[in-house]
Design goal:
This protein has about 210 residues and is an alpha+beta fold. About 15% of the residues lie in helices and about 40% in strands. The strands form 3 sheets. Strands 3, 4, 5, 6, 9, 10, 11, 12, 13 and 14 form a 10-stranded mixed sheet that branches. A two-stranded antiparallel sheet has the order 1-2. Strands 7-8 form a two-stranded antiparallel sheet. The chain is elongated and about 60 Å long.
Length: about 210
């Protein structure tokens, strides 16, 4: 919405818009959001005619923006046990989430589906823990996690959700489970094929 206020979107390609809002190489995300804004009447979008513009509705526009839903990309599953599921960022669908549930910076968020029980005691927000099948909200902007953060770690191309711990005494990183079951920690050393794909900031519980 802010970009539409400052620029004529009809003169920009989807790829150019993606670059301006820091989602490079993901023009499909921009297209999806534009179509969602068109559905709720906040924008007029017609790609065939090159029309992409805000709909001016005065004070009613502000009210609708405050209550808008965001569609976050679901990029796959991450294991809540050993790192055994490939963390490939192919968009498998979108989860519509109320804007009130999300932080201000939304373009860096994505969804993973939790697979496994190893974090079912880890409280993320308002007492919510990460159970098998839950939707985990991840902020990819947290490339350098703090000690104690719950992160999505990618090890040898495999994704896992764990508690991040720095063991400076032994010069290693420890990824710990928090579960009703027994899971051994994962030890990471310098030179290992390891990266952080973001910090877990929220959990959306799947209905039982």
């Amino acid at each position: 919405m802010d970009l539409a206020k400052s620029q004529d979107l009809s003169k920009l390609s989807l790829r150019q818009m993606a670059k301006l809002v820091d989602v490079d190489n993901k023009p499909q995300i921009i297209k999806h959001h534009l179509l969602q804004l068109d559905k709720v009447g906040l924008m007029q979008v017609n790609f065939d005619k090159g029309i992409i513009k805000l709909v001016n509705r005065g004070f009613n526009l502000v009210s609708k923006i405050n209550n808008i839903f965001y569609s976050l990309p679901i990029v796959g599953a991450a294991n809540c046990g050993p790192a055994t599921i490939f963390a490939d960022e192919r968009i498998e669908g979108y989860l519509k989430v109320s804007a009130k549930m999300l932080p201000r910076r939304k373009q860096d968020l994505y969804i993973l589906v939790a697979d496994g029980p190893s974090m079912n005691l880890a409280e993320v927000s308002e007492g919510n823990t990460i159970e098998d099948g839950d939707f985990v909200v991840v902020d990819r902007s947290y490339a350098n996690p703090r000690n104690g953060d719950i992160v999505v770690a990618v090890i040898d191309g495999m994704g896992t959700i764990k508690r991040y711990k720095e063991d400076k005494q032994n010069n290693q990183i420890v990824l710990e489970a928090e579960s009703t079951e027994k899971f051994l920690p994962i030890f990471i050393h310098e030179g290992d094929d390891f990266a952080i794909s973001g910090k877990v900031i929220d959990v959306i519980k799947r209905p039982k």
